[in-house]
Design goal:
By secondary structure, this protein is an alpha+beta fold. The protein folds into 2 domains: about 160 residues, Cathepsin B, Chain A (Alpha-Beta Complex); about 45 residues, no CATH class. Helices cover about 35% and strands about 25% of the residues. The protein has 10 helices and 10 strands. Strands 4-5-6-7 form a 4-stranded antiparallel beta sheet. Strand 6 and strand 7 form a beta hairpin. The relative contact order is 0.10. The C terminus is likely disordered. One of its GO terms (cellular component) is membrane. This is Peptidase C39 domain-containing protein. GO terms for molecular function: ATP binding; peptidase activity. It holds the Pfam family Peptidase_C39.
Length: about 280
Amino acid sequence: MLEIALGSALMYYFATEAFEIKKKPAEAVYYTETLDSRQDSFSRMHREPVLIKPALEDQFRGIVRQAYDYSCGSAALTTLLNGYVGTQLSEQQTMNGLLKFGETEKIIERRSFSLLDMKRFVGALGLESGGYKGEFSDLVTQAQPAIVPISYAGFKHFVVFKAYKNGRVYVADPALGNISFDEQRFKDIWENNTLFLINVAPENRKKFLALQDSDLRHVEDATVNRYAFVDLQYPQFYMDKIADKASTIRLDKNLNEESENFGKPTYNFLRLYYKSK
């Protein structure tokens, strides 16, 4: 028994010394591929780690996600302050500030925050800000992120304008993440052409809301409409073909008066359906 225990201990020691055992990161996924069989190798299989992250993480990159259905204003303001000014606020801290320095009674009554509430809170932080009304060209040429109100999907909503490029408007949406609109679509939903800006010296501006390559990977609206209801795995014509092969055939008279073959014999496929007792 002693020899067996000693042998097991020695085997464990040499195994741990021979192979470098490293802690695997949580985001690592290992895929395996077969090596070229014509090449001599200690192992016929090759394993390599690939680091991945949830798509949701990139979708809300740089965005403070709203915690409540009525808190898009506080989440949008927190996103703008953190991403452009460089603060490190949570949405709850911003909400507390808006309630303290804003029109508290009106906030509670309407269950939302206004641009005036935002201006007062930003002023309490020692920053200049203001709400303005302008044209779409003003929003684009001012070259800085701004909070803009939109009417979208039947709701009034606050988002952060990030950039405009090649006919698309890119925004940080506290509810949906990093999304984009066609220029005309954005103009249609932009509420009263209003924007809220924070004045920050150029040397102090942060670029956490700057446009990135991942933001450009959008799907055109026309593409979504074209393929939204298409079943690529089992298209209907294929299922019809399979069903026809599995059915019996009956020769009937064509009773469709609008058909060119009205009154002529027509083959009808009778599909069989089964059910358990």
